[in-house]
Amino acid sequence: MLTSDVTRRALSARDPARAHQRKATHMPGIERHEPLYQQVATAIRAAITSGEFPPDAPLPSEAQLIERYKVSRPTVRNAIAALRSEGLIDVIHGKGSFVKGASTPPLTIERNITRTGKTFAADHTVWEQVHEPTVYRTTTTAATGPLLELGEEEALFGVDRVLISLATGTRALHRVLIPFATAEIAPSLAEAPDAAPEAIYAALTAAGHKLTWFETVRARMPQADERSALELPDATPVVHILRVTHGTDYRPLLLEELRSSGAQVQLSYRITADSPRTLRAVRS
Questions:
Q1: Each residue's pLDDT tens digit, 82-125
Q2: Which of 189, 218, 184 is nearest to 201 (CA)?
Q3: What's the CA gap between 186 and 188, in Å, rounded?
Q4: Which CATH class is domain 5-99?
Q5: Would you give the DSSP letter of residue 2?
Q6: The domain 107-278: what is its CATH number?
């Protein structure tokens, strides 16, 4: 199918490599009014869906894709990066790009807490620690202070963990922030702030608190250190979960953060019906 003069002029303006190819033919599916690399990604995606590029097969080389779609090398590379971030292809250094086989089911992270007697169980997803937790002292920030109903630069214990699911290879970053005031309520937390969250809940309950939890979930693009620690492909968002533990007087006692790949995980919640009188609006 031949491009119209208008389309050829538009593509030439957006990709210098097309300037000398005004009469060239091109594959269908790249005439949409969107960035050129997205048009190429759409065309490759259609070829994958149709079976022209079957699962586990290599994609054509960069040079072949440049010739096929009459675009520049950066355009092809951006299209490949977009398809990689969608999970459609794998890029193996030195070998090229390959269509992924049957998609791997996402890791389900169960976000619930149960209690049997004095024992708590939380988030039944099976994680292994990549290395020992990092324990440090820090202070509240403009982001964490309001969640804990504290001003900025209030003293906290911080505990960072890098986790991995051995079943899927999915990685996660888990952080616990414990105000010094909370550690005064349960002195064992000052001695061992790196206790598992379930042990922290038990210690706060033993100190006389009836606990409730509030969670906020959002997706965002990762920071550089998160992308490295989570081993994320380019353009992959993170799921960022904030869990605040409240005591009997609804005062925030503890803040937990969990961050993982937005392309590899899904969240599962158990929802129960509570009396409206037991619910309380949480300030964000």
A1: 888 777 888 777 788 888 876 667 899 999 999 998 899 988 77
A2: 189
A3: 6
A4: mainly alpha
A5: B
A6: 3.40.1410.10
